[in-house]
């Protein structure tokens, strides 16, 4: 089928651009002497995760246990769960992953002594050993134990608790991924973790408690940590490159990031033409996430998208020759790929003007 034959609104991925993004990021990470562990919250698809692994990624990240369950069922065997869990139901689900997939690797991020004690208790009872990675505070002031004595005590707690093991440290500065300007972004990202690496060299290494794995970084900051001892990078959005990431700048431009190509798109139809300078399309907030700004029309200048509510988007002619006609289809570039993708059940895979495949978004809605 042709793209123009799709009913709308629909989610598209440009296969050639996505494949090139996978290859480009893998090569960049290889050149830095690091490993890539892409974050799959951007795509929520075991099919795409396997493509990333086939290209050289060592494993994947997921944000939630529900995503880990989906990825494991899809055959992905090395999974880092980047968000702490709490409560008996969640802990038992984690243990169940170990029991159901004994040859797979699951690493659970934690940041509190209670995590260690309770996961250890459940694991010991089940006869498994759960790998724990400690998240440290890296400027975002979200999750994470403070660098210093609290971190040292938590490492010792893991070492002294049966049923768990010390896998390493997570240091992710999510709040810096969209800082404008390549040099400034990398400068801030490096400064955010300097105290951690000083603590590792000055305190943890002499005590033989240095982590084997240090995981973090993202699409905006993956190149910020040269000469530090990060072992793996968690970048995810590079796969699709949304409009927000395109605006942060790269090595060559302060205003545009052209390291990767925009591969994720939404096709929509003009359903109303109230005036010469206004059109209404069938893609509103239930399709296009606006938490990082408004989407952009592909290959169109002088037209601004405004959210019109749950079901409607409004196109305004600000500087141009005309707007699309009633019934005409338009293609938009999302501002935030993760939250836009989570609005759809299916990705239509396209090459040129043709739809060549359909991939189910199996992790859609799995925020559990």
Strand and helix map with partners:
Blueprint: E1 10-14, H1 15-31, E2 35-36, H2 46-54, E3 60-62, H3 65-73, E4 78-81, H4 88-100, E5 105-110, H5 113-126, E6 130-135, H6 149-159, E7 164-171, H7 182-204, E8 213-216, E9 232-233, H8 243-246, E10 264-275, E11 278-281, E12 296-297, E13 303-307, E14 313-317, E15 329-333, H9 337-341, E16 346-351, E17 354-360
Parallel strand pairs: 1-16, 2-9, 3-4, 4-5, 5-6, 6-7, 7-8, 8-9
Antiparallel strand pairs: 1-10, 10-11, 10-15, 11-14, 12-15, 13-14, 16-17
Helix pairs in contact: 4-5
Give me the secondary-structure category: alpha/beta
CATH superfamily of the largest domain: Alanine racemase
Distance between the termini: 35 Å
CATH topology name of the largest domain, in short, is TIM Barrel
Determine and state the CATH class of the largest domain. Alpha Beta
Strand content: 15-25%
Number of domains: 2
Biggest sheet descriptor = 9 strands, mixed
CATH architecture of the largest domain: Alpha-Beta Barrel
Helix residue percentage: 25-40%
Determine the mean pLDDT. Answer: 97
Q: What is the helix tally? A: 9
Strand and helix order:
EHEHEHEHEHEHEHEEHEEEEEEHEE
Evaluate the radius of gyration.
22 Å
Q: Which stretches are poorly predicted, pLDDT < 50 over at least 5 residues?
A: none
Structure write-up:
- The chain has 368 residues and is an alpha/beta fold.
- It folds into two domains: 3-8 and 258-360, Beta Barrel (Lyase, Ornithine Decarboxylase, Chain A, domain 1), CATH 2.40.37.20; 15-245, TIM Barrel (Alpha-Beta Barrel).
- Helices cover 29% and strands 23% of the residues.
- It contains nine helices and 17 strands.
- Strands 1, 10, 11, 12, 13, 14, 15, 16 and 17 form a nine-stranded mixed β-sheet that branches. Strands 2-9-8-7-6-5-4-3 form an eight-stranded parallel β-sheet.
- The chain starts with 9 loop residues before the first strand and ends in an 8-residue tail after the last strand.
- The model has no long low-confidence stretch (mean pLDDT 97).
């Amino acid at each position: 089928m042709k793209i123009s034959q799709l009913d709308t609104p629909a989610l598209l991925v440009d296969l050639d651009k996505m494949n090139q993004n996978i290859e480009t990021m893998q090569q960049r990470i290889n050149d830095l002497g690091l490993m890539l562990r892409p974050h799959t919250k951007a795509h929520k698809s075991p099919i795409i995760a396997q493509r990333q692994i086939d290209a050289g990624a060592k494993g994947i990240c997921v944000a939630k246990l529900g995503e880990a369950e989906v990825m494991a069922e899809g055959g992905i065997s090395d999974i880092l769960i980047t968000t702490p869990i709490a409560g008996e139901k969640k802990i038992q689900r984690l243990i169940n992953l170990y029991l159901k997939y004994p040859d797979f690797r699951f690493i659970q991020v934690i940041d509190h002594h209670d995590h260690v004690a309770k996961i250890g208790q459940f694991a010991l009872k089940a006869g498994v050993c759960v790998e724990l990675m400690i998240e440290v505070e890296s400027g975002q002031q979200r999750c994470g134990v403070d660098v210093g004595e609290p971190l040292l005590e938590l490492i010792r707690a893991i070492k002294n608790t049966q049923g768990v093991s010390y896998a390493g440290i997570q240091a992710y500065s999510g709040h810096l991924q969209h800082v404008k300007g390549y040099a400034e972004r990398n400068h801030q990202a490096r400064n955010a973790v300097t105290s951690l690496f000083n603590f590792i060299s000055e305190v943890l290494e002499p005590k033989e408690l240095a982590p084997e794995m240090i995981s973090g970084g993202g699409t905006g900051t993956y190149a910020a940590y040269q000469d530090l001892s990060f072992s793996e990078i968690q970048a995810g959005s590079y796969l699709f490159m949304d409009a927000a990431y395109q605006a942060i700048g790269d090595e060559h431009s302060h205003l545009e990031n052209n390291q990767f190509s925009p591969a994720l798109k939404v096709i929509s139809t003009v359903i109303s033409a109230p005036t010469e300078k206004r059109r209404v399309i069938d893609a509103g907030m239930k399709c296009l996430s606006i938490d990082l700004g408004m989407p952009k029309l592909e290959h169109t200048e002088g037209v601004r998208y405004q959210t019109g509510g749950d079901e409607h988007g409004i196109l305004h002619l600000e500087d141009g020759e005309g707007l699309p006609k009633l019934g005409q289809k338009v293609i938009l570039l999302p501002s935030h790929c993760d939250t836009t993708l989570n609005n759809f059940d299916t990705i239509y895979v396209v090459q040129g003007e043709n739809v060549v495949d359909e991939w189910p978004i199996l992790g859609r809605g799995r925020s559990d």
